[in-house]
Description:
By secondary structure, this protein is mainly α. Helix content is 51%, strand content 2%.
Amino acid sequence: MKVHKAEATMENHVTQISRDDLEDLREAFNRIDIDNSGFVSDFELQELFREASFSLPGYRVREIMETFIAGDTNKDEKISFEEFVSIFQELKSKEFSETFRKTITRRDGIRSFGGTSGNSSEGTQHSYSDEEKVAFVNWINKALVKDTDCQHLLPMNPDDESLFASVRDGILLCKMINLSQPDTIDERVINTKKLATFTMTENLVLALNSASAIGCTVVSIDAHDLMAGKPHLVLGLFWQIIKVGLFADIEISRNEGLIGLLSEKEHLDHLMSLSPEELLLRWVNHHLRNAGTSTISNFSEDIKDSQAYFHLLDQIALQGEQEYRMNVKIDMSGLNVSPFFFLSHVCLFYVYVKERNLDRRAELMLQQAARMDCRQFVSPHDVTSGNSKLNLAFVANLYNMHPGVQINGSGNGIDMAHIEPESNEEKTFRNWMNSLGVAPYVNHLYCDLCDGLVIMQLYDKVNVPVNWKKVNNPPYPVLGANMKKLENCNYAVELGRDEAHFSLVGIGGENLNEGSRMHTLALVWQLMRRYTVLVLSDLGDGERVGDQIILNWVNTTLSQKKKETQISSFKDKLISTSLPVIDLIDAIAPGTVKWDMVKRAQTGVLKEADKLNNAKYAISLARKIGARVYAQPDDLVEVNPKMVLTLFASLMGHNLKKANR
């Protein structure tokens, strides 16, 4: 991104743009940048703002261009995507500062506040949604109501700021992570008694590293931010954690009944490539078609009148009666609450009455959802205002509680043996990518990497220079779309071979484009390995760190601390006990290990259950002391050398960072 004078004049109040908003801006930019040059011209700027739903009058756009050109070092009067984002941020920030006072509530439930970003200057303004806060509080209160470790926090009041204070000791965050992805954190590692600042910080570090391990983006959050209860960061993190849990079972390998959503002549591969959001939409429309009513295309505008929800609930109840003997009959009379109200020509009052009637219908619909124990995430106003995030959560929870789909006896002619669940290795790679904030979010490792864009972003993360002018960005043309994706994949292989010096023998762009499992995993592993050891080179003299250097450090550190465990390689069977890892953690962070929690062999061979017990404990300890670990307990028990390497490298990096402070 070019640095120009216009940036120097920006206010300190810079609105932070979320990843979802950034993707929307990218799509708007690509619609205007029809020649894929990576730039838009001055005369296209007004149309670009219109595409980004931020219309400006012509004179205002001209003023912006005059300021931009004055500071444009290239004098080419062209605007890159990064420059457009910078301008957009400044304009949005100015709009916020002119509209709101510091720390006030807007009519639409958005609160703004200042001075809460650790990565920007004091006075930075952020905003958060009251509706989201209320929805998350209610969800957490219900989910953790019986958790004895959270009794000092629950129930929280959705109408005050208790949610932001609740994360201070880290316990609630750890519990929510385990609710979304069970056993991510070994709860023996959580500090729950005699809490002090240090032990609360340990919990928060554990929570952040564990959130990263399940695919949450936490690169801009640290323990101090959470201890301070910064609202926009707390809500953003909670949404990511909750979303991971809501979407966990929305895939065919978890529910083969989803195959029933296949349309005629559609191949299974396409259905399996759909994101959870797309599958949910298709699931809703499946039930709406069965009800003989109109389908929807989104979870915002199309659900505002509650009609789709009434029919969806009715179909699920009917299906549940057949499958689970669920004795709930949906009262459809709420559909008779008309949103229209004839009243002379007083338009404002007409609109008011119409909105009140829609709210009334939404409330009646939610009362029916409550009978199925599914009144979560949305209020009547969230429905009628079309809050897409909360409505998506409402539908996802409804699916998880009452999927209401089943596969017929023939399996729709599909061999179910070919549907394999995601492997541990694939899951680890996918979570690693998502934790780095790649866009779009990776739901399916092979499908979502087949256009090369995520791989290019990963190259950026490991300091491999990418010439983005050579990269084709969506939307791709209707004709030749796959050719554009293939060009990206060819470039990705070229970068890996010539710039990153990866071993890519026998791998071509077509292998990535076709979603070849073997070839994609080979490249992704080398990217993850480079990312893992990169910090070691940064902390040293810049030399490339090899496996032997890491192995020598492990054994030397163990010897210096008088530990008996030593490993010959990252394939050493002793690693299956996790004892070398636990000893190493004790060596670099004395006092962390509670030895009564560690299982040791009584007759020479450690039981499998004890190995898994140790592995869970070891990985959570590593995350608690500050190591960013993506490996899973099974990786230690099974001695997966790739993931074992990343674990030891992360511990080495953490130790070197601590020594350099």
